[in-house]
């Protein structure tokens, strides 16, 4: 495959995608190939558009020229995002890559909007389109180039998990679709006198605008704080629970400071009767090993729990069975019991989804209902509950 040949030819140590320098070279490769291909397509389409007098073809040509600018922005985005951390940005400059993708998206939308106006003018003032087979074939060839470029960008983007390159892949496939519409317009002009060129120009422009809108949405999400990748969340929890001394996890938070710059924190439940020095060594080892394995920066907070007291375990089972009647509660943690015999305060955190429309009054009602249910069988028990929100969106 030609894209793999280019990667092997121009990206040294291409398999080491966690390396910042390797990642940067991937971005440069994608940017420079994008500049070359889009400049080539711009020249071809502009020539075809001027020869045939087609506004749709000219619109498509300038869309490719905007893609040249997008590739330049992508290169600068990778260059700036690779800057090391400083006093003002202690977690690095990785989010610049998202900003560069956002600029690309706005450029795409600008081109689409400008050519909607041009297409409307062409509908109002139609001109004759000159059809010729050679320009038509060149448009078909340009579609193949765009399809290849989309696959190339996607390949690079998946290898280094780059939103900017993935955005360029989506942009390229939308360009292939718009070019197909242009080719159809050019071909139909051979048989009909209806001013189809202007209408096809509007269709092309709307496709460009739609692609730009989707790119804006996709690049804004990580900047605004989108939910973390479900697979990453699952892997973090699974890796932490591999350590025998850790009996449960909760309160996982994931912060994205750009590709390859993810910080996560999690609470781990550990036995309260284990040596502090021993469990501290285990947690330290877990933080380092999991961080290296998942390419993140992980911080683990220790929550001591009683794992041997039969009475505590019995009360926990009682509460878990009670919660089956309240499906809004996803899980509980930090479970502990204060008091002995019939009079007890049972303390724990109850987790609900952050996106639930659950007000403070609803929280109070839930706590009252849980206390009401437990007092049916254990009248001297009091549930002291803290409502905890799960912000992972999983």
TrEMBL record:
InterPro entries: Cation_efflux, Cation_efflux_CTD, Cation_efflux_CTD_sf, Cation_efflux_TM, Cation_efflux_TMD_sf, CDF_Transporter. NCBIfam families: CDF. One of its GO terms (molecular function) is monoatomic cation transmembrane transporter activity. GO terms for cellular component: membrane. It holds the Pfam family ZT_dimer. The chain crosses the membrane at residues 26-48, 98-117, 129-149, 198-216. PANTHER family: MITOCHONDRIAL METAL TRANSPORTER 1-RELATED (PTHR43840). It comes from Clostridium senegalense. It is a multi-pass membrane protein. This is Cation transporter. Residues 32-224 form the Cation efflux protein transmembrane domain. The lineage of its organism: Bacteria, Bacillati, Bacillota, Clostridia, Eubacteriales. Residues 228-304 form the Cation efflux protein cytoplasmic domain. Belongs to the cation diffusion facilitator (CDF) transporter (TC 2.A.4) family. It is found in: Membrane. Keywords: Membrane, Transmembrane, Transmembrane helix, Transport.
């Amino acid at each position: 495959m030609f894209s793999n040949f280019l990667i092997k030819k121009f990206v040294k140590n291409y398999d080491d995608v966690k390396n910042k320098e390797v990642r940067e070279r991937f971005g440069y490769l994608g940017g420079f190939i994008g500049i070359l291909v889009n400049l080539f397509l711009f020249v071809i389409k502009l020539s075809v558009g001027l020869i045939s007098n087609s506004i749709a073809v000219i619109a498509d040509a300038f869309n490719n020229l905007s893609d040249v600018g997008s590739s330049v922005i992508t290169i600068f985005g990778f260059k700036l995002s690779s800057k090391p951390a400083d006093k003002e940005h202690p977690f690095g400059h990785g989010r610049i890559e998202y900003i560069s993708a956002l600029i690309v998206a706005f450029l795409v939308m600008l081109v689409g909007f400008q050519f909607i106006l041009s297409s409307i003018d062409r509908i109002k003032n139609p001109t004759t389109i000159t059809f010729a087979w050679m320009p038509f074939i060149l448009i078909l060839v340009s579609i193949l180039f765009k399809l290849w470029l989309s696959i190339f960008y996607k390949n690079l983007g998946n290898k280094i998990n780059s939103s900017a390159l993935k955005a360029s892949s989506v942009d390229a496939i939308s360009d292939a679709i718009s070019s197909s519409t242009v080719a159809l317009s050019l071909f139909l002009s051979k048989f009909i006198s209806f001013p189809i060129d202007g209408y096809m120009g509007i269709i092309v422009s709307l496709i460009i605008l739609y692609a730009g809108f989707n790119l804006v949405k996709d690049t804004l999400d990580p900047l605004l704080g989108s939910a973390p990748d479900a697979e990453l969340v699952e892997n973090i929890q699974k890796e932490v629970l591999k350590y025998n001394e850790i009996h449960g996890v909760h309160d996982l938070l994931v912060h994205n400071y750009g590709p390859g710059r993810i910080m996560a924190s999690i609470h781990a439940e550990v036995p309260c009767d284990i040596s502090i020095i021993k469990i501290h060594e285990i947690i330290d080892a877990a933080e380092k090993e999991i961080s290296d394995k998942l390419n993140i920066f992980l911080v683990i907070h220790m929550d001591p729990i009683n794992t041997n007291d039969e009475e505590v375990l019995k009360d926990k089972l009682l509460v878990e069975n009670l919660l089956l009647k309240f499906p809004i509660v996803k899980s509980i943690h930090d479970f502990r019991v204060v008091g002995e015999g019939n009079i007890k305060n049972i303390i724990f955190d109850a987790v609900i989804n952050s996106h639930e429309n659950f007000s403070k009054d609803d929280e109070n009602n839930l706590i009252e209902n849980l206390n009401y249910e437990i007092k049916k069988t254990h009248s001297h028990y009091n549930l002291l509950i803290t409502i905890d929100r799960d912000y992972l969106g999983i």
